[in-house]
Structure formats: structure tokens, C-alpha cells
Amino acid sequence: MERVRKGVQALWVFLTNGFWGFPFTGTLYQGPLKVLCSPGLNCYSCPAATTFCPIGSLQQLLLGVRLSLQSGQLLVGTYVLGCLGLLGTVFGRFICGWACPFGLLQELLYAIPTRKYRLPPVLRFGKYLCLVLLVIVLPLTLVDSFGLGRPWFCKAVCPAGTLEAGIPMLLLMPELRTLTGWLFAGKLAVLAAVLLWSVPVSRPFCRTLCPLGAFYGLFNRVSLIRLKFSADACTKCGACHAVCPVGIRFNETPESSECIRCLKCMTQACEFNAISLDLAGLTLSGGPTLPEKRSPRTTAP
Amino acid sequence: MKHKPAAGQTPSPHGRRPARRYTVRRAPLFLLLFFLLLLLIGIAVDEPARVLEQARTVCLECIGVG
């Protein structure tokens, strides 16, 4: 199952970054597919990006909401929020585990053999702070003399944007290099910190800073695709704790907003069918005889 | 051998095989309708064109250059 998941993650990397003509055109993809919402965090200024980033677009619409309303347009982010809400209601954080390019990168870095560390649980609230403050409140309220705000999360934090768009665009457009300064240096430092942090800690950005993961996490309790827990079948052996990449004790908090639905607990750990996948009422179980279950890999998230 | 009903199943009064109990979760349906409505409102006010316009240009601020 883990190979299948890696394959699906790789497929989404290429689906959302499928324009490889940028070295010849000298700029990013400008086709009609960019009206579609990327399910995972994927910067739309990446030269290969074929879809729009929901977090970037939401900030862009919110920061210009005053000008839009003054000009009689109602561009307040309903389309982007509608796309995000539909994705969240159907998948919840399943997207984080299966369709996010930056999540895949962190998983690959975590596979580097080093000593592994747990993440202090209190840090998980950081992503909600990012969502509320940097994506919604500051772009709406901190405005210049023209009434325009700034995309604070993208501008100051987003390491996916620096990696997928900032660095490639500077390579592609040398004239932009003169515009770089402390801001870009700061973003490079954030990117370097996140990448280095991903080696000893599992998915640190997803768990502490990602506003998209925070948004999808709100839907984990109600999403159509979710994990079901059978308390009667659970023996409280703790095997699901050991394999969870985001440090959840699944049998204690089966509807946790942190769960990225990677299905490791179901397919690699639980031998008692206490965990199953609910696809809008259709229940799928991993089955007790999968070879993966005989040799569970333990992690220290 | 007596069949033990699994979670979400109730024993049938007429036979040994358990009858599956289906429940409809309303919360996702309401949320789907709500967000579909938001999406349609966005399309009605031509927000996708604005999103497309933004996504087609390099956002210098977004990449930390501007």
C-alpha cells in the first residue's frame, strides 16, 4: 500500500506540475487548466504548475477585496473557498497524505537514515495561526494607501513557493535577481530550516505551518472519505501509534484533525481489523494477511 | 457456527446472516451543498477569470522577490 501511495503522490506532482515547456517559453504555464484548483500546496508561480494554488489565490482575492467591492465586483474568494470546501468535504486531509507535492518531499527527506525525534504537540497550533493570521486577517486588514493588502503567508513563509517558484524563476529570468533582498534571503532560510527539519522529524511543515492542512483538518470528522475505528476489535496494542507519521494515537483520537489518512495504521499495523476505510458508506478493510503487516516499520514522529 | 455481527450490522430476525444497517450522514451532504453554492456564486461573479489572470502571471511577492 505504501508503494501505491508513493506512486499516487508522484502522479500528483506531475499532474499539478505538468508543463515542461517552460525552458523554451521562458515563462510559466498560461493555459486554461490554471482555472482548476490544486488539491495540495503547489505554488502557481512555479513555471511548470498547471493549476492554481488555493492558498495563494485566496490571499490574492482577499488582499484586493476593497478595490473589488469599490469597483462593483464581488470577488471575495467564494470560488476558491468553494473549491477548497468541496475538496475538504470529500477528502479531508486524505489530500495531505496522497496528493501534496511538498508532503512527498518531506517524506523523502524523512527516509534519510538518521536519529528521529518527536514533534512537541503544542507546535501543531502554528498552522491554525498561519491560516487565520497570515492567510485571512493580515491580507484583509493590513493595507497600503491604495487599499491593497499583501499575501503574507506566501510573502514571508511559504517554503513550497520558494522551492517551486522562487528559485526556478530566478534561474529562468535573470533580470529578477536584482530584485532579491532580505525578504528572499529570509524565505530561503525558512525553506532550508524546513528541509533540514524534515530529516529528523516527520512532516514538520504539514504539522506546524501548513494553512492548507489546517483547513482540510477541519473536515476530518465529517469528510466522505475517512478512517473508521472499531473499539470492540481494538486490543490497545499500540501498533498504530508506532507507524503513524504525524504522531497520532489513532485508537484514542480516531477523528483527529492531524490524521493525513496515509493508511499506514490500517495496512501496516493493525492486525485485528480495528481500522477500516470508509468511502462514503462503503467500508474497506486492509485485511489481516497483508505481507506489510508482518514487518511494520516503526517511526518516531 | 454462530455468526457474530460486525460493527454497523444488526442480526436479521429471520435468518442467520446479518442485515447491513445503512446510515446517511447529513453533515457532509450539507457541506457539499454549501460549498457547491459558494463555487457557483464565484462562477456567477466571474471569479475564475480573476483567478486565471492571477495564476498566469508571476507573483513576485508570492515568491519572495517583490
Summed up, what is this model?
The complex is a heterodimer of chains A (301) and B (66). Chain A contains 15 helices and 3 strands. Chain A has helices at residues 2-16, 22-25, 54-63, 65-70, 78-91, 94-98, 101-110, 126-141, 152-156, 159-172, 182-197, 204-208, 211-217, 239-243, 264-269; strands at 225-229, 275-279, 282-285.
Protein architecture, described:
The complex is a heterodimer of chains A (301) and B (66). By secondary structure, chain A is mainly α. Helices cover 46% and strands 5% of the residues of chain A. Chain A has helices at residues 2-16, 22-25, 54-63, 65-70, 78-91, 94-98, 101-110, 126-141, 152-156, 159-172, 182-197, 204-208, 211-217, 239-243, 264-269; strands at residues 225-229, 275-279, 282-285. By secondary structure, chain B is mostly helical. Chain B has helices spanning 26-44, 47-56, and strands spanning 9-11, 18-20. Chains A and B meet through helix 3, helix 5, helix 9, helix 10 and helix 11 of A and helix 1 and helix 2 of B.
Mean pLDDT of chain A: 89
Order of helices and strands of chain B: EEHH
| N-to-C series of helices and strands of chain A | HHHHHHHHHHHHHEHHEE
Main sheet strand line-up of chain B: 1-2
The total of beta strands of chain B comes to 2
Which residue ranges of chain B are poorly predicted, with pLDDT under 50 across at least 5 consecutive positions? Answer: 1-10
| Rg for CA atoms of chain A | 20 Å
Radius of gyration of chain B: 25 Å
- Please state the structural category of chain B: mainly alpha
Tally of alpha and pi helices of chain B: 2
Number of domains of chain A: 2
How many individual helices of chain A?
A: 15
Shape of chain B: elongated
Multimerization status = heterodimer
What kind of sheet is the major sheet of chain B? Answer: 2 strands, antiparallel
Query: Order of strands across the biggest sheet of chain A?
Result: 1-2-3
Which class do the helix and strand fractions of chain A yield? Answer: mainly alpha
Largest sheet of chain A: 3 strands, antiparallel
